[in-house]
Amino acid sequence: MTETSQSLPAAAPSLNAGRDWSRSIGNGAILLGLAVALVLSWGPADMASWTHLFTDAGNMAKYASGFLHPKFDDWRFYVEEMIVTLQIALWGTFLSLIVSIPLGILAAHNMAPAWIVHPCRWLLNVFRAIHEVVWAVLFVVAVGLGPFAGVMALFVHNTGIMAKLFSEAVEAIDARPVEGIRATGATRVQEVIFGVIPQVMPLWVSYFLYRFETNVRSATILGVIGAGGIGQVLFESIRGFYYPESAAILIVVVVTVSLTDILSQQLRKFFL
Amino acid sequence: MTAVDVKDLSKRFNRKQALRGVSLRIAAGEMVALIGASGSGKSTLIRHLAGLERGEAEGSAIEIFGRPLQANGRLAADARQMRREIGVIFQQFNLVGRLPVITNVLVGHLGRIPDWRGTLGAFTREEKLEALAALARVGIPDVAWQRASTLSGGQQQRAAIARCLVQQSRLLLADEPIASLDPASARRVMDVLADINRRDGITAVVSLHQVEYARRYCARTIALRAGSIVYDGPSAALTNDFLTELYGADSEELVLPDQRPAGGLRLDPSRAPWMGEPSPVPA
To answer: CA-CA distance, A170 to A196, in Å (whole number)?
Structure first.
């Protein structure tokens, strides 16, 4: 970047004068790096087996045909268990919302000094790097089998994601309104409440709803490792080769996730 | 009483020297214009006076109403308490667009009421009425419950002034308050500022891009060029010829286009009918 001062030399204009080459070089390097990573990963990811998608299509068709006739005899039970899963997701997401608000502020570079930001980010990285299934296994050991282990697993993992998303929203705010608040003699916390939160509110609501949707799906998986809810029922019926029942459960899950999506869209509109 | 006392204030941003050894004194009750071309250091100076920026480590000192705000590049420990005596108006208004206007104005109370009450946003009925009264005084009583972002630029700036009124500061710093406004809104905003200065005796420092407004509204003008004070005296003495002397070709920037006669800068009163006599020195 050059200074826009009057002291610019009156040399002949050159097309690339003052151009920042590091950006162009950086873009090229990133693309090259991505290409190299893809090539190196081809073998280990067993991508050469892609032909099996076609040669073994018959197997898949046979397996899928078992799902073609869903059996809804126990639908009340499925819906009850689905509601348990929703409730696990709701509490997990809500608890992480409570923690993500302060952590999201403290992990933002424009809000806190580096010696607070970095430990916060590191903590969030740990929360996020460990999958919720792993957290669930840990919590099953700690608090026993059941929905509460699922809530705690979602809570911890989701905090790692949501607080990071929150802090990125905070880093993108317009600093000027915050300065306007500061100029009245407000405290730091008041700056956040009146200057920052209103600005990030639409994004935060959006992230929260998106994470809730995601957590409904995750809570289904957590049932598989014993955290209760519809997932447990689904896993048991697949393992017992009850494909028609499994198909019915999957339909319940898909309908529920779609409904959650519609509901959160409406809420998002309301908050924008 | 001295409202603002700046001693040897310098500030450098990376490679650019924004302020060079600025010293000035402003008496309580004055309305002072700060003029200069873009990048001359007006905004930087105002931000230092507001305690939003810190000067360089050696020798810089700013006192507001006799209390040190910053010295040697460090803010005073009670800088936050001092900010409530200093109202700031910004070029871009700095309102929170998604909050209703009245909340933006109520924010002016934050420095004066107990912290816990401000933090919870639990403003009393009296405080809300005070905010409404401030909005009425700046001429926009009907927009209280609209989102600030829905207001026009001139209305937003007046809402920002209402916030300062509620703050009951003794010093008002306005950083290019009219630079983003159309001429009609600009005059209305300047009228409100002049009225606050005259009726409430609040000291006002207003940075302006155009010298006409300085001549019309402020008895005294401080002119900056490249971070140094090049003139400090009566605004009436700032003729266009003198500006050309001070700023050379840059002086064009400081005069409204329609006041710029072809072939040279000389003010023609018949072409500036709205320009009255310079306002008298406040008592």
So the answer is: 7
